[in-house]
UniProtKB/TrEMBL annotation:
It comes from Rhizobium leguminosarum. It comes from the Bacteria. Its EC number is 2.7.13.3. GO terms for molecular function: ATP binding; phosphorelay sensor kinase activity. It catalyses: ATP + protein L-histidine = ADP + protein N-phospho-L-histidine. It holds the Pfam family HisKA. It is an enzyme of class 2 (transferase). Keywords: ATP-binding, Kinase, Nucleotide-binding, Phosphoprotein, Transferase, Two-component regulatory system. This is histidine kinase.
Amino acid sequence: MTKDMTSPSDHAGGTVAMAVLNAIQNPVVMVDESGFVVFANWEAEAFFGASASHLARYRISTFIPFGSPLLALIDQVRERKAPVNEYRVDLSSPRLGQDKLVDLYVAPVLSEPGAVVIVFQERSMADKIDRQLTHRAAARSVTGLASMLAHEIKNPLSGIRGAAQLLEQSAVDDDRALTRLICDETDRIVSLVDRMEVFSDERPVDRMPVNIHSVLDHVKAVAKAGFARNIRVTESYDPSLPAVYANRDQLVQVFLNLVKNAAEAVGDRPDGEIMLTTAYRPGIRLSVAGTREKISLPLEFCVHDNGPGVPLDLLPHLFDPFITTKPNGSGLGLALVAKIIGDHGGIIECDSQNSRTTFRVLMPASKDASLEDASIASSTGPSR
């Protein structure tokens, strides 16, 4: 008679394996040959919105949208007995929520015939970072263009304008309108070049802990006194929000630009409304290349409007230079906003659907606030 005994080392190994799987910041599930979920780590519980014991009662197909490529991938891995990757798979559903875009890694479990392990990598934050890097690269290209324009265009334009003014003094009335047109157009081009020169300003800016609510109140006052005079502007602030480590003048420039865009989108609609919101969203941490440091972006500032929204084809390129939805726009306002936020180590994104547009800015807290958060975390014990 043999006894099925498990050694202490096996118990220890199983405990370590569980600790490792639960420490992984991606959802990991194991599916048996019948399709039932036999294991789910902590991130998987959060991803599916159900406990591991609840997940174990059902097949994986219960939680995945009908016709999802994931089910075909599982069959493919079982057949080939080899791992498969699939990128940008849409798992959006009423159960999982909207915008569930994931990368999938599916691998067979050789010790368990028919069983597979599935690792989900959510694309939302990866896409945000990727878009932000694209915006920065685009801003750098404008920087080079601005430097060239300043020397190669502004100087000849000043000569052309001066010559047009001299001609205007001796021109007849019919020709004077043409010389006036030349002056107006040269002024317009110089103004555009001046706006682009902002991108080439690489001087370090003074940063300090800034109360974002005082910035937003200032922006609201300026807006109500001018371009948003007839638009309802409301706010929903988190009063306990820590300070943001930033340059106050540049933050005013950013949010003034965003609120002005919102006001132009709302236009003359009688029910037009702009809402300013702030919130603390812990959990978003970005790794810094070349170091072990991680930057936290817990501060969320939003500008909402109920205008017609941004066309879907423009949405991915909205922060690129020279992209605009306005008939007479230069397309540099939002590019400059993205550059300033990027220089502060933050992220900006736009979500537009169902006649509601939200510009969301994620930024790091002041260093003092970050140290305070770290001390609170350490006092509660190490994370496991």
